[in-house]
Design a protein that fits this description.
With 136 residues, this protein is mainly beta. 13% of the residues lie in helices and 43% in strands. The radius of gyration is 15 Å and the shape is globular.
Length: 136
């Protein structure tokens, strides 16, 4: 298996080389992994509303991507999403993820999607399992 820490740029969520990917660009700000993005109609479920699977992808990437950024590659062991209100297409979204706790190699994570006025449209919790060196 290829070295998982070697970024080939094809991650669906953040890969800049993936022609059909979301091309998210995250930065670390005060203990959070944050990206601003606008999702167009290509990712909607119905007119003007972002598809739930894409919402889940954004939330999962903010959590798992943050651990990869911290050089702690992990996979999602459990993910729970709460959709608070429809997430619109065509508007700026802020996606953020952060560490909520840790027990050995299991990291408890949280993430959210917010509109420009601060309204939270979706949030998630996850248990991410940090990989052993042999798994990487």
């Amino acid at each position: 298996m290829a070295d998982m820490m070697e970024d080939d740029g094809f991650c669906f969520a953040c890969g800049q080389n993936n022609p059909i990917g979301l091309k998210l660009k995250f930065v670390e700000i005060a203990g959070r992994y944050v990206a601003k993005c606008v999702m167009d109609k290509n990712y909607q479920s119905f007119n003007g509303v972002l598809h739930g699977g894409i919402i889940t992808t954004l939330l999962d990437e903010a959590m798992g991507g943050y651990l990869f950024h911290l050089k702690q590659p992990a996979y999602t062991g459990k993910l729970e999403v709460r959709y608070r209100r429809p997430t619109p297409t065509g508007e700026q979204l802020t996606v953020s993820g952060w560490i909520a706790g840790r027990k050995r190699n299991v990291v408890e994570m949280r993430s959210e999607i917010a509109l420009s006025d601060g309204t939270i449209t979706a949030e998630a919790t996850a248990k991410m399992v940090v990989m052993e060196k042999a798994e990487v």
